[in-house]
Here is the input.
Amino acid sequence: EVQLLESGGGLVQPGGSLRLSCAASGFTFSNYAISWLRQAPGKGPEWVSAITSGDDTYYADSVKGRFTISRDNSKNTLYLQMNSLRAEDTALYYCAKEGAARGTYWFDPWGQGTLVTVSS
Amino acid sequence: SYVLTQPPSVSVAPGQTARITCGGSNIGSKSVHWYLQKPGQAPVLVVYDDSDRPSGIPERFSGSSSGNTATLTISRVEAGDEADYYCQIWDRSSAHVFGTGTKVTVL
Here is the structure.
């Protein structure tokens, strides 16, 4: 069974930093692109960043230059380094395995999420 | 950037059919994916690539897309189908885009 388990969330002051982790199991981690997504309270999901099996990285405009995605295939773990955090970054952060076919991409499954709160 | 618009809510009686729309410019030319999300839980993929179902998703869930509208259809609705539903596309210029979400209430 494919499982994704996020950790590292917490309360941080504006301008601060946080590193999220996503531990994967049940599939060959190195063969798949993995994304970070987030969901602010009462809002829909928002894609944040993705890393391919070849280590190509992609970011939403809202986090570009502040967040860095990386992976350690030896540990089956995905990371998201978040710097210069803002109040609007407050959300539940999910990692999700990407599916792909015919030039389109989807997310399945998702982890249970880790909560990031940016507040003074 | 690309925008996907869903009705805020849909109400349906048990055993009836629920149809959730997702509007976007020429969405019929893109592949649409659908997720359900129950309170306090992570989203779950129910339809991908317009009309394919992941393993374990009942045949009651089906998808279609044409023109400017994609539709998720839930047949023989059950109480357990009550959830928020989101459509999603991948677009080369906008990357991943999610719809505004639809709350399905089973009466």
